[in-house]
TrEMBL record:
Protein name stated in the entry: 3-dehydroquinate dehydratase
Annotated site residues (Transition state stabilizer) in this chain: R18
Lineage: Bacteria, Pseudomonadati, Pseudomonadota, Gammaproteobacteria, Oceanospirillales
Listed PROSITE patterns: DEHYDROQUINASE_II
Documented EC number(s): 4.2.1.10
Keywords: Amino-acid biosynthesis, Aromatic amino acid biosynthesis, Lyase, Membrane, Transmembrane, Transmembrane helix
A Pfam family of this chain: DHquinase_II
PANTHER family noted in UniProt: CATABOLIC 3-DEHYDROQUINASE
Pathway(s) of this molecule: Metabolic intermediate biosynthesis; chorismate biosynthesis; chorismate from D-erythrose 4-phosphate and phosphoenolpyruvate: step 3/7
Gene: aroQ
Biological process according to GO: amino acid biosynthetic process; aromatic amino acid family biosynthetic process; chorismate biosynthetic process; quinate catabolic process
Keyword Transmembrane recorded: yes
NCBIfam families named among the record's database cross-references: aroQ (TIGR01088), PRK05395.1-2 (NF003805), PRK05395.1-3 (NF003806), PRK05395.1-4 (NF003807)
Reactions that this protein is recorded to catalyse: 3-dehydroquinate = 3-dehydroshikimate + H2O
Transmembrane segments: 120-139
Amino acid sequence: MSTIMVLNGPNLNLLGQREPETYGSETLADVEQACNEEAAKHGLSIDFRQSNHEGELIDAIHEAGQLIKEGKMLGVVFNPGAYTHTSVALHDAIVGAQVPVIEVHISNVHARESFRHHSYISPCAAGIVVGMGTFGYLLGLQGLIHKTA
């Protein structure tokens, strides 16, 4: 069985309690359950992770790159949180590890503060899902499955 990594960046552990008017009331555990159910429909498993630390996210991307080369993983659905707008290092990790990434954002970052309009991840992403709430994770999974088929 092949795997998809669902990787979440800083503050996503607060999903359901942080700014529910922007991010909704679902928790990260709810998102994980929905991702597991969606993946199972396709005969896949999920490696679901969250970290508030940039280096841990980079290590996870490197690990995904190795698993992809071994044929054990399809790619990564990635919500980098605020690191989207600041991290050249995450961009470089994705490119260097040759990881197919679907970038996901719960809110419509383009309808928010101007500093959220730029993404260092988008130029190296295989696809982007923005503003669809937590349903965007399922769209990201479906997109990654489609792109890697």
